[in-house]
Input
Amino acid sequence: MPKSRIRKKADFTPPPAKQTTNIKLTNRSWVAPVMLALFLIGLAWIVVFYVTDGDLPVKSLGNWNIVVGFGFIAGGFGVSTQWK
Output
């Protein structure tokens, strides 16, 4: 019976090293103060509306003052997505 040929395995060569890229983070120091300011303005708007029985901050808006307050709070959440 004939002998089969023995195949020589290729020597192991490690994969090339991955090059790391530096990520440039922009200066986002404005995000936290703006976010907190919007939260607080929205909260203050709603509290003032309830405490003054609807006379302040804008009497002509009536109950829409609540929507304005929540709009400021929603804006704060929108700004918070920029925080890194």
